[in-house]
Write a structure and sequence with these properties.
By secondary structure, the chain is of the alpha+beta class. It has a domain of 118 residues. The longest helix has 26 residues.
Length: 171
Amino acid sequence: MRLRAMGVGGLCLGALGVAAALSVPAATTGCTTHQCDSDFVNIDQSTGTLIGDVTVLDPQTGAAVWESSPIDGTWIDFPGQRTYFVALPPYFAPGPGLPSAWIATGPTPDQVDASSTYVQGGGQLAEFGPFVNGGFLVTNASCAYYYLYISVPGTYSPPPAPAPGDGGGGD
């Protein structure tokens, strides 16, 4: 009698395990509706869509910051699964600090009458790739639609202007 009860109890536990395993896939849909397909956008001079601006903080040392847009301006569309390659302007070198990303629910979050909110992007909301080929990658690895602002500390050192009379005209 005791062995029979253990067998029935084991069968019940086994049935519960199978039922739990079958119910998990039904509860999650994943990215099966194509509203979260990946997308890649190249933002650089070759595509004519260079964005951002450099602000020189200290002319003596060349300390500067590159921003994707003015913080109080319109931020970049950042739909789910979108990856941007962002080219930095010539003569700007990133570092020594890390870039920072801010994510908003509306395109102009810093305006007084804006109803959107923003937070510092981390985790899946703003994944940075390495600095390569004069720029970097940033990905919204979530399936949610946001707006993006990026700042990158660095240095800006353009070449010196040519001396007067040194225009190459053979003076």
